[in-house]
Amino acid sequence: MPERRVTVAIAEGLHARPAALFVQLAGQQPVPVTIRKDGGAPASASSILAVMALGAKGGEDVVLEADGEGAEAALDALEQYLLTPEH
Questions:
Q1: With 90 as the cut, is the pLDDT of residue 1 above it?
Q2: 23 vs 30: CA distance, rounded Å
Q3: Residues 3-83, CATH architecture
């Protein structure tokens, strides 16, 4: 299963608006994507409650995982979102 470790560049982290936009983008992907912090359980990247519950702050690493046809492209899109500081 492809995975990607990404440092969240969004200053406020995955809270409120950035989390909602991330979840929306994840839901548009052709494959299911999970997100987790190191040592944590994977959560659905398309669930606003799960993403906000992670408490991922700016500067912290998260791990994205996807499986199936289109997984790499899905990870590329979500990684790019997390690496863009302004949303």
A1: no
A2: 14
A3: 2-Layer Sandwich (3.30)
